[in-house]
Predict the 3D structure of the following.
Amino acid sequence: MNWREHIVHWTQLPEDTTSGGNATEWNFYRREVGRLLAEGHDNRWALIKGEQIVGVSDTQDEALAVARERYFGQPVLVKQILEWEPLVNVPHRWNYAAAHVSNQCA
Amino acid sequence: MPQLTFPISARELLADVRVNVSAADMAQLYAHRRAAPPPVVTRGELDTGSNVTGVSAAVIQRLALVPHGKGSTRGIGGNVTVQLYRVSLSVFDPANPLVPWFVVPDLEVMELPSSVRYDVLIGMDVLLECRLLLDGPARTFTLDY
C-alpha cells in the first residue's frame, strides 16, 4: 500500500464549493496555509473565523477553548497547519459520491 | 473491566449508541443557561476501515451542531472536503442498564455521506480506546473498556 495515498500536500487541498458551514474559513485556510507554513507555524493550530485568522495556538484544546469562548454556536475552523494533510479514510462501500461531488478538487 | 456484548447480525457489527453534544460544549451551554438538545439514541456500525468516527447529517441537525473543522477524503473523481464536528459518544446495552457505558466525552467526528445506512459509523479512533473481541462462531462481539 502506498502511504502517500493517505495524505495530501497542502497545495492539493480541495476547495469547498458549498456556501454553508465553514466553507469560507476552509477556503481562506487554503489560501493562507502556505504563508503560515513559511512563517514556521507547522503543526500548530489555527483558529479562523470568516476570512480572519483569530489566533495560532500550540494545541487543539487551546484553539477550541478560544473558539468556544468567542464564537460559541457559530461555525469556525480549528485546523492544524500541516504541509502534508492526513486523509479521512471512509470505506469504499460508503464512498463520497454524488452528494459531495461538487466539492471535488479541480 | 466493564464489557458489552452484542450479537452479530447480517455480518455487521452493530451496537446501541447515544450521541450528544460534546462535554465541553455541554458545559458551555450550562454556563449560558441554554437548554441542551436531547441526545440521539440510535444504532452504530463498527467499521475498522474508517479512521474517523462519523455521524449522519440527520443527527447533526437534531443536535444543532456547528462545524469546527474540516478534513479531506478521497471521493469518486478526486478529493472532497468533509465537515468535522465534536460530540460525545456512548455505547451501551439497553438490555443491561447496570453495565457502565463506554463513553467518549469529546470526540471529533465527520459528517457521513448520505450513502451510509446508519446514523453512526464507529471508526478506529474510538475502537483504539477499547478492546474488541470478535467471536465469529458464536456470532457475537464484545467491547472491553
Remarks:
- Residues 32 and 68 of chain B are 19 Å apart (CA to CA).
- Chain B has a mean pLDDT of 94.
